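agent> fetching stored inputs for the flavin mononucleotide docking request
agent> found them:
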Amino acid sequence: MTMSPERIAILRTGVDVEEAIYGRRSVRKYTDAPVPEEDIRRIIQAASRAANAGNQQMWHFLIIRNKEVTQRMQQEVITALQEAMAWESSRPWETHLKSRVRGSSFFTEAPVVIAVLSKPYDTVLDSQVLPAHGLTFQDIYDLRGDPGRQSVGAAIQNMLLAAHAMGYGTCWMCGPLIARPGLERILDVTEPWRLVALVPLGVPAETPNPRPRKPVEEIVTWID
Ligand SMILES: Cc1cc2nc3c(=O)[nH]c(=O)nc-3n(C[C@H](O)[C@H](O)[C@H](O)COP(=O)(O)O)c2cc1C
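agent> prediction call returned; pasting tokens
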């Protein structure tokens, strides 16, 4: 990939954190330009700097550049959605489900797909004290708010911001998880790891408008 003067300038100077936060968009169309390995490493490095529970860094990233693999993954997602569409109980939502097909499977159009894996937060309280008192994994997960996945969420956001700052487009995707067991089989993901998101990465081939957000006053409650 030839670097534009703007991108070289960004790499030299860095991008203001607010520009990255406010300038990032979910990008769903990419050019075929390859992403240099060095850039992918920088993006993963940024992900790994995220705040995370107990600094356990319960994340792992699969960098998928093989189209044959991403196409098999795409087929897995389409098949899972078609199965859901065929359920008698899905009748009222058939049109909605059809509209989800591209939104859950376009990742294969990007030159790189990052599969994000997470494993549970492991502490004496979570894995010894609470189970010994009779709490199930689900009870503990609900009580504790799943610090493992919260940590991975922070890493994904760092990844999106870093990629944007370097001139790349990404989209955080959980839609494909409708086919999680099949995707995990293709990617050879085994316990305790779990696939939590896919992040396609590439040079943007579209410039999406910002999507609206609720005003601060609507999402905040002041407790003085
Ligand atoms: C957890 C999560 C899952 C998402 N899953 C998908 C997805 O499967 N497909 C998709 O097209 N976008 C997905 N998105 C992107 C959102 O649709 C997008 O962030 C939102 O509409 C706001 O737009 P913006 O990112 O451009 O600000 C997901 C975002 C998050 C945080």
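agent> quick read of the result: Residues 67-86 form the longest helix (20 residues).
agent> awaiting further instructions
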